[in-house]
Specification:
Structural class: mainly beta
Number of strands: 44
Strand content: 35-45%
Largest sheet: 9 strands, mixed
Number of domains: 4
Shape: globular
Helix content: 10-25%
Radius of gyration: 30 Å
Number of helices: 10
Distance between the termini: 86 Å
């Protein structure tokens, strides 16, 4: 068969060029091949490959409270997105309150030319860049809200052609969004001006192409052509900009459908109650910036959330926007919504995304300064006078009354964590995960101006979560240090064990003695007392950095003594409680699927396998514990992998993590 292009050479019989009945020779194929013309399923279409190392999943964790700094990861749109466009049949922006917006969306993704199933076929390295947890999904929408804003898809609102669809995910850790045909590579970087480098030029990771900088939430789902995606976004703010001179509240948010052409068929802006949109409200179409990004250092995510950067923008009055409009290049449709609030005072509340952990609650209040409160109240005073209010909250049947008197200055915004004091007698009666009612009332001049009741999820005392992470993975906190709450050295049961052990070796002096042999005999005596009536049971222990928000049962020592049995973490905490009561420095050692104990004896660490209680002697427990430690930790006590760590009870106490009992 003759080549359609050159009319000379023999053509390739399996050419998959789009919209053509012809066929091409190998030389013409190389000259003409492109993402616009070719079906990338063709074996002659080259795969795109990144020539730079992946930078993903980097984090830095503070030891004493588990707060984790996450770092920015690049997001690369697949090249095939150039062949797609988006038709938005409905975009209805509902402004319920200055800090609460809902956006109803119905849209289709369509093809300029037939793409079959080519989404990632020839640039599949971008999947790994974008995150393994999102494998098989593509980004279809980004929401830009800056640092104090967050967004999520309202539960059960996501559907495709009116059929409920649950295969979607949300990410919030991407800060740079690169457009199709952007590319990562190793390249020369001039660092002559930077003192921290010894060389003038180094080889580093460089990304070139067009892109946006800005904190966003990205919705990922399956790419389904010519079907109606339908969803409702909930956008909320924990802080807002209030202009005191103009008496205005400014609300920023942007929508980005990552396609070259976006056609809005029905755009609506609806305000509820007495909200008024100011005439100087604007919308901005932000276009991407052509960049060469030299990535010399990893960038913290949380310190780069207060701006959006592109290559230029078009701005116009928001109130003048037509219900039908389109743009034919990649653009963020950004809203600068400016409101007046007639009554001058807005109150609302919301429940935390995280459950109330009754066993950890007191320590979490001290350690995290309200970050994990059961609920939050938002107060916006956009008036010219001070508002004196009284907040009263209570978890029915579970807490004491929580009261707070506030003076809200003119044009002030406050987001207040609701932190009632729990009733210790009530919380020990909870044996399973349940829901309780949290009632919030706010009074001004003795008149109730706000009342709301929320259902909150409550976990029993012996329920433990090792990791808190939002669904978008934008932040993470490891709670393993809070295991110290379950180390209870001051209970009568622990005092009884020490008293019984003292009969075997005389007076137990603990750290008052600096004699290694005497201390070891005391530790052994306590171990032997516990061994009389204790046995190891195999109950799952699932400490893992990958199992975010998973619940693990951790027994208090009093429960372990009552049951006369426990798993590795239960027995380690029991043994740790007795040794801490003797003033020893103890640490819990966590390794994949297991836990054991470390005790500092005259500046030398001794490792004890607590599961040996009841079936092996003290010498064997040390032998097994030492073997476990050497397997997972190096000679300088550093963990060999990210799933192994030590929890210092001493450090926990210094930072206000106190025993539950």
């Amino acid at each position: 068969m003759e080549c359609t292009a050159c009319k000379i050479k023999e053509s390739i019989p399996y050419c998959l060029q789009r919209n053509s009945n012809g066929a091409f020779c190998i030389d013409c194929c190389k000259k003409l091949r492109s993402w616009d013309l070719c079906d990338t399923n063709c074996v002659n279409f080259p795969k795109e490959a990144s020539h730079a190392p992946l930078i993903k999943g980097l984090e830095l964790t503070r030891v004493y409270d588990g707060h984790t700094h996450k770092f920015v990861e690049d997001m690369f749109l697949p090249n095939i997105f150039n062949q797609l466009y988006c038709e938005v049949s409905l975009c209805q922006v509902n402004v319920f309150e200055p800090n609460h917006i809902e956006v109803d969306l119905i849209f289709k993704i369509k093809e300029f030319t037939k793409v079959n199933k080519e989404e990632y076929l020839k640039d599949e390295w971008k999947i790994a860049e974008n995150g393994d947890n999102l494998r098989g999904l593509v980004p279809i929408l980004q929401i830009y809200t800056f640092e104090h804003g967050s967004s999520n898809v309202i539960h059960n609102s996501f559907s495709i052609d009116n059929h409920p669809f649950m295969r979607y995910d949300i990410s919030s850790y991407h800060f740079r969004t690169w457009q199709p045909f952007s590319f990562a590579k190793n390249d020369y970087i001039n660092v002559k001006e930077k003192e921290e480098f010894q060389e003038d030029v180094i080889i580093g990771r460089v990304v070139e192409g067009e892109g946006f900088f800005g904190k966003n939430d990205t919705i990922w789902t399956e790419l389904i052509i010519n079907k109606d995606y339908k969803l409702t976004l909930n956008i909320s703010y924990s802080n807002l900009i209030i202009d005191r001179k103009k008496q205005q509240v400014k609300i920023p948010f942007g929508l980005y459908f990552p396609f070259k052409l976006v056609n809005y068929l029905d755009y609506k802006l609806i305000l509820w109650d007495d909200l008024i949109v100011e005439e100087d409200s604007k919308y901005t179409l932000i276009i991407p910036k052509k960049m060469r990004d030299e990535q010399l250092f990893v960038i913290p995510l949380e310190s780069n959330m207060n701006f959006i950067e592109g290559g230029g923008y078009y701005e116009n009055d928001l109130l003048g926007v037509d219900s039908k409009f389109h743009y034919d290049r990649y653009c963020i449709f950004h809203h600068n919504l400016i409101l007046k609030v007639d009554n001058g005072f807005v109150v609302n509340s919301k429940v935390s995304k995280f459950p109330l952990m009754t066993g950890l609650y007191k320590s979490m209040k001290r350690l995290y300064e309200g970050k994990y409160a059961p609920a939050y109240v938002n107060l916006i005073n956009s008036s010219n006078k001070v508002r004196k209010v009284k907040l009263i909250a209570k978890i029915q049947g579970l807490s004491k009354k929580y009261e707070l008197n506030l003076n809200l200055r003119p044009h002030e915004y406050k987001c207040l964590p609701i932190l009632p004091t729990l009733d210790d007698k009530k919380i020990v009666e909870i044996n399973e995960i349940t829901t309780e009612s949290l009632e919030i009332n706010i009074y001004e001049n003795h008149n109730r101006v706000y009342s709301e009741t929320h259902e909150i999820i409550v976990h029993p005392v012996e329920s433990f979560i090792y990791n808190f992470q939002d669904r978008g993975y934008s932040f993470k906190t490891y709670l393993y240090q809070l295991l110290a709450c379950y180390c209870t050295p001051h209970t009568r049961e622990i005092e009884r064990i020490i008293s019984e052990a003292s009969k075997l070796v005389g007076n137990i002096m603990g750290t008052l003695s600096n004699n290694f042999d005497k201390i070891m005999k005391e530790l052994e005596a306590i171990y032997n007392v516990l061994s009389k009536d204790m046995s190891y049971v195999t109950r799952s222990f699932n400490f893992s950095l990958e199992n975010m928000n998973d619940t693990q049962r951790v027994s208090l020592p009093s429960t372990t003594l009552r049951l006369k049995s426990g798993n590795c973490i239960d027995l380690s905490l029991l043994l740790a409680s007795t040794y801490e009561a003797c003033k020893h420095e103890v640490e819990l050692v966590l390794i994949p699927g297991h836990a054991f104990l470390a005790v500092n004896v005259t500046s030398m660490w001794i490792y004890i396998e607590a599961t040996c209680l009841g079936n092996s002697d003290f010498k064997k427990a040390i032998e097994v514990g030492t073997s476990q430690f050497e397997k997972y930790f190096s000679m300088n006590n550093q963990p060999k992998d990210s799933n192994s760590r030590r929890v210092s009870i001493k450090l926990a106490r210094e930072n206000g993590i106190l025993p539950f009992e």
